[in-house]
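Hi W., the adenosine-5'-triphosphate complex you wanted:
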Amino acid sequence: MKYSIKAPAKINLSLDVLKKRDDGYHEVEMIMTMVDLADRVDLALRVDGKISVDVSEGFVPSDERNFAYQAAALLKKRFRVRHGVHIYITKRIPVAAGLAGGSSDAAATLKGLNQLWELGLSLDELAELGAEIGSDVSFCVYGGTALATGRGERIEALPSPPPLWVVLAKPPIGVSTKDVYGGLKVDKAKPGNTKAMIEALHNQDAQAIFSLLHNTLEDVTLRLHPEVKRIKEQMKRFGADAVLMSGSGPTVFGLVEKESRVNRIYNGLRGFCDEVHAVRLIRSSDTCPNTDENGML
Ligand SMILES: C[C@](O)(CO)[C@H](O)COP(=O)(O)OP(=O)(O)OC[C@H]1O[C@@H](n2ccc(N)nc2=O)[C@H](O)[C@@H]1O
Ligand SMILES: Nc1ncnc2c1ncn2[C@@H]1O[C@H](COP(=O)(O)OP(=O)(O)OP(=O)(O)O)[C@@H](O)[C@H]1O
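Structure:
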């Protein structure tokens, strides 16, 4: 028995850090949405009970450090599953990029194994399990567009943004999420306006969404890596309607309303970055070709 699942990347339309908690995490308020750039996760049943992982990119760990491995190990232990699984991950999402690639692979693995191992868990139960692997995994289980609070694991669905193009550009540096949160001075951080962004989504108001893009972590990463600022400036100069760094970075995304501008921005940035992608936002009304509502291919 085999399953293939799409594991899409996320971007943060807004990210506010409210306070540092006693457990070392930060209390956040973020609006996240999925984009149509996805890894592919293939699951094949193993009757010997073992869990194994292979990844198309050799530098991504394929042992217990892999988030997809951790998802399988968590389900196997919690539900005393006899079977095992071989997980093959075809990476398309840039790694350590602020796009939640590993978290999305974990979420896809949870959803796929729920079918493969016939566990009968609800999406809410899978999202709760996902939070044990990482703060972004719960959102990736639900997908779509959502408000995430707590340390990122409390999810409330929101309307999708209006149809937009997204150009993603990742400079050739990796950023540690832990270091970026660690470098933030919460009391000095500029706040965004989550309430107004939610209203803009309800109103399908692209101009308001552009003006309300906000990421508290951006200043920290920009200080550590000035090249991220240069990519932001170039993306704006080539014609993006609005630009922001996603998550803890270093990927910069540009939102673009007019399709005619996308090629110019994409080609312009290719001169500076190897990893550039022009994709669409995934809207909840869109059906991904050849997939069901769980992203199963
Ligand atoms: C930056 C974002 O990607 C935005 O969506 C997330 O907030 C981070 O999510 P993530 O990568 O799944 O993060 P985790 O793997 O849970 O945590 C990595 C590290 O980031 C820091 N961290 C993460 C989430 C959070 N709300 N506060 C934190 O301070 C902690 O030091 C933690 O040890
Ligand atoms: N399936 C996976 N895909 C990519 N990286 C993984 C995976 N599993 C574990 N990792 C490890 O996790 C680290 C972070 O990778 P990932 O691509 O998830 O970062 P990210 O996009 O910045 O995440 P986030 O946006 O959630 O903070 C990598 O350096 C890699 O060693």
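Residues 2-158 form a domain with the Ribosomal Protein S5; domain 2 fold (CATH 3.30.230.10).

W.
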